[in-house]
Amino acid sequence: MPQLNPNPWFFIMLTSWLTFSLIIQPKLLSFTLTNPPSNKTPMTTKTSPWLWPWT
């Protein structure tokens, strides 16, 4: 069964992983974010209990 032979597929996986890690990923990480995250204070909402008519 050829799909169980890891010889050609392991090399293809290793080559693609190294290509992504060494070439593509540094190029992607060099981009600046157009909308950088800011430190906003979380809004607290006032909650009130429901008044059930049958209680």
From TrEMBL:
Keyword check for Transport: yes
Keyword Metal-binding belongs to the record: no
Topological relation to the membrane, as annotated: Single-pass membrane protein
Membrane-spanning parts: 6-24
GO CC list: mitochondrial membrane; proton-transporting ATP synthase complex
GO biological process: proton motive force-driven ATP synthesis
Keywords attached to this entry: ATP synthesis, CF(0), Hydrogen ion transport, Ion transport, Membrane, Mitochondrion, Transmembrane, Transmembrane helix, Transport
Pfam families from the UniProt entry: ATP-synt_8 (PF00895)
One Gene Ontology molecular-function label: proton transmembrane transporter activity
Stretch forming the signal peptide: none
Localization: Mitochondrion membrane
Superkingdom in the source lineage: Eukaryota
Predominant place of localization: mitochondrion
InterPro entries attached to this UniProt entry: ATP8_metazoa, ATPase_protein_8
Family to which this protein belongs: Belongs to the ATPase protein 8 family.
Name of the protein described by the UniProt record: ATP synthase complex subunit 8
